[in-house]
Amino acid sequence: MCDLLDPPPPAEKKLSRMKKLRRTLSESFGRLALKKDDSGFDEICVTKMSTRNCQGMDSVIKPLDTIPEDKKVRVQRTQSTFDPFEKPNNQVKRVHSENNACINFKTSSTGKESPKIRRHSSPSSPTSPKFGKADSYEKLEKLGEGSYATVYKGKSKVNGKLVALKVIRLQEEEGTPFTAIREASLLKGLKHANIVLLHDIIHTKETLTLVFEFVHTDLCQYMDKYPGGLHPDNVKLFLFQLLRGLSYIHQRFILHRDLKPQNLLISDTGELKLADFGLARAKSVPSHTYSNEVVTLWYRPPDVLLGSTEYSTCLDMWGVGCIFVEMIQGVAAFPGMKDIQDQLERIFLVLGTPNEESWPGVHSLPHFKPDRFTQYSAKNLRQAWNKLSYVNHAEDLASKLLQCFPKNRLSAQAALSHEYFSDLPPRLWELTDKIKITRLEERNMI
Known about the structure:
globular; five-stranded antiparallel β-sheet; Transferase(Phosphotransferase), domain 1; three-stranded antiparallel β-sheet; alpha+beta
């Protein structure tokens, strides 16, 4: 496997390759400096599309075939009390409807910008806080905990800005988790408005801490607040930003491999940022080294579920389709509750059970056994998710993303040119990588 390293030479002659890599990472990230704003990006004002009412429409679509009784499970999200669009100051006004918030932003009448925090570029004494030092950041509260890392909300003592501290516990025998090294290595070279920014890295004997820009919530928590589905305009803006970030990394031959709402951060100004690159991989590495144990089950494409390890950017595009449907419909597209078999049944129920005609080569996949699956015919997506029919071109875009045969899935760049986005301002396609969408004004489209 490509992740395995050659046996290290004697300790007295040379450090092991892993230790050397960890030291190099620590030293290089210790020299990182903040850019001209929180994330080093410029800002642009984008005209907001007019609000469309999609509530109260009766569906006349023929209902989808029912799932067998043993597969019926009510899927509920944990309700969040956190308001990602809570008004932080007098500079921005946000308007919400009671049941389904449309992101609206207006600048204050004064037109003045909030004062910039003075950056601590030249400490006057050896005790002044510096980047790359553990005591340069103050932990404020725990945000979450995983199998090998804990995330805290923190504050930089260098410039007073909020940060997210991903503290990775190091085991003396196992050393630094390779996923952490991979995440740090990739993010160091990714500078895009729709990708979370890595500010700093701190390496001690006990921990490796990745310091990220602080983003208020994630898409999963945001959708918890609106279980009936998000406002169509918000869905469009979130999806545009997701595709924009994916197009950027795909053009650099990088796969995210773990797209899900929890890994899409949402700022208090409506920005979406790709995060958690622990499973990301450069696709220039030979495909036979890839694992099929990637992507959370609900967002894992059928080719990977069937054991394929020969995948490319199409892997991420299936996840985009699932997230797109979930934002519109308000429920997960394929919420498998048992195992891989159950997950595949839910996919085939909507898209049809594949065969060699619809999916060339499917019979050669390791886990495909035709007699194990119920034979379903393909349906129109609106039969499964009726709200797709409420938004122009939404069903067509979703159908081109949710293709069982991976080579038929739309690429991120091609999806950005789909008719679904035709009513967005043309200026959006002219944005450079580091320009972000931060101020949205409620007015009719030009």
